[in-house]
Amino acid sequence: MEKQTLEQISNNRLRLKTSVNAVRWLTFQAYAFRGHDECPESRNRGNFIEMVKILATYNDDVAKLVLENAPKNAKYTSPQIQKEILHVLAGKVRSKIREDIGDAKFCILVDEARDESKREQMALVLRFVDRDDFLQKRFFDIVQVKDTTSLTLKNALSTVLSHYNLSVQDLRGQGYNGTSNMRGAWNGLQALFLNDCPYAYYVHCLAHRLQLALVASSREVIPVHQFFSKLNFIINIIGASCKRNDELQFTQAAEIAHLIALDEIETSRGANQIGSLQRPGDTRWSSHFDSVCSLIRLFGLTCSVLRSTIKDESTCFQRGDADSAFDIITSFEFMFILHLVKDIMGASNILCEALQQKSQDILNAMHLVLTTKNIILKLREDEWNNLLGVVKSFCERHNIDVPDMSAPYTKGKGRPRHPQENILLEHHYRIDIFNGTIDSQLQELNNRFSEKVVELIVLSSALDPRDGYKLFKIDDICKLANNCYP
Hints:
Layout: H1 6-28, H2 47-58, H3 60-68, H4 79-101, E1 106-114, E2 120-129, E3 135-144, H5 150-163, E4 171-175, H6 180-183, H7 189-196, H8 206-220, H9 222-239, H10 242-261, H11 285-297, H12 299-312, H13 316-329, H14 332-355, H15 362-382, H16 384-397, H17 425-448, H18 451-460, H19 466-469, H20 474-484
Parallel strand pairs: 1-4
Antiparallel strand pairs: 1-2, 2-3
Helix pairs in contact: 1-2, 1-3, 1-4, 2-3, 8-17, 9-13, 10-12, 11-14, 12-13, 14-15, 14-16, 14-17, 15-17
């Protein structure tokens, strides 16, 4: 720098400013920087180089000094320079977040995952109240870890916090998923932080907790577990083929047009939309509810497409898969579980959607947990006959055989499963499947939404400043102080 002229320094700053602006824009838009081929002859040299070229079209100096006449040792466009600029920007963002926290207490939200290069990484989010008394949640850092043991994660988090002078003694909350290395009561990550700070209470992500409760309940009852595997199989048969998916939608459009012509359905904006079978997702339990509802709504059309596939497809594999799917979908047990899980998930769907909202009244969410438990319990006690009637009516409309509930239960086509116990079909469907599914559901909800966590959250709601501290109650504040922060 001492040997450079003022003109050279100005040119260097222009080149560096151009690269900084390109990095900033790509970062805020979450775009990739690099291209597959960045040589000068390439037609697409990657987002970073192409962004610099766009900036050059608006500034002749950039075109002249950055793209054409830049010295080879000061172009400021290499991958190394891109990463350095990005790290500088990230450091400034973290410093600003640290400044906003000040001396306040804070909470940490942590999750770990494996990236595309198979490296374990841990994401850290800080939650705090800033100097203007606004609740803030800021993504803070991604840390690469050699493994996901609780001690490794704890050491990595402590290193990041200490680097920015954030004391573990100011930690007032931990939010993780439900894996054993995170929530373990003795050696989990939350337990290790509680040893250092007894007020760093662990709260399991409530939406994830509901997801685990519902998934666990479906896995406890074998026929229900098998049902979801069969549901995925049927949806894959229809959705994996563009031809079958188009046939489903074309048939649906024709049926809607026919019903409108007969004035059997109403028409309005947004009504009677043509849909398809919804695929359930692993992390969104509401997607399972949508998947079940879509199959019930399109059941007749789905059967029609499967029959057409069995008759017209050219390969034996496609005909065989379609025939297996048709046998599954037209069985009474599949129909019974389809309507059962629809009722159970319908009761919990409101709670699931409420827990996934960005702005959540946590006190209302806790009331929804109790309401959901009561609705599911009422379903167990009072709705057996109604459910059975709905399933029988549905089967009769679609020409599905309804078995005699007083007949002995046999597994498959063999002999009775427990001939010495004389188990009837009604016992199998009502006790083994209906009651078993609901009981496992209630047990998981009671276990995962524990009274201690619910009490901490409900009592903390007394500190909610909205509506002039409308929820403020002296008794709850005293109980919170005595029970949780002695």
